[in-house]
Amino acid sequence: MAWTDSKVFRAFVADAFDNTAAFDLGSDSFKVALYDNDITPDNDATSANTAYNVGQWVTTGNEVFEAGQWAQGGVALTGQTLNSATADVVFFDATDTASGSAADLANVFGCLVYDDTLTTPVADQGMSYNYFGGTNSVTNGTFTVQWNANGIWRATL
């Protein structure tokens, strides 16, 4: 099918608010896994179906990676922050995420951002998926996910 947009998973918000999952956006390890255009992300998926290597996010045939450059399972976010300093806004951001300097990655349409720390109630539960606006690739270079100036996700209250 196809990517069409970027969204936070409804299950992530619900699980955080009702304390089903103890996400810590300041200290949990989050990873970014790359995917091709053979999937159709769904922000209404159940908690279990937002997880890395489950449902749409299976690795076989869908995940884009290269050993030593962009690991299967994703690259860890760094510099992550949850910011609520602006009136009526809360956003989650991180440093741009990059591969090694000799990556060969093709047909990358988007990514899954997931919590790699928590194991219960769902291991590797997804937080959001981010569409890159079309196909992206790199040959013998650095593939960088440049997070929007407004963050990986942003909520206006």
Task: Please outline the helices and strands.
Layout: E1 7-8, H1 10-17, E2 30-35, E3 63-64, E4 75-76, E5 81-83, E6 89-93, E7 97-98, E8 103-115, E9 126-141, E10 144-145, E11 153-156
Antiparallel strand pairs: 1-9, 2-3, 2-4, 2-8, 5-6, 6-11, 7-10, 8-9
Task: Explain how this protein is built.
- The strands form three sheets. Strands 1, 2, 3, 4, 8 and 9 form a six-stranded antiparallel beta sheet that branches. The protein has a three-stranded antiparallel beta sheet with strand order 5-6-11, with no helix packed on it. A two-stranded antiparallel ribbon has the order 7-10.
- Helix content is 5%, strand content 36%.
- It has one domain (7-156).
- It is mostly beta strands.
- The chain is globular and about 45 Å long.
- The longest helix is centred in the N-terminal third of the chain and has 8 residues, at 10-17.
- It contains one helix and eleven strands.
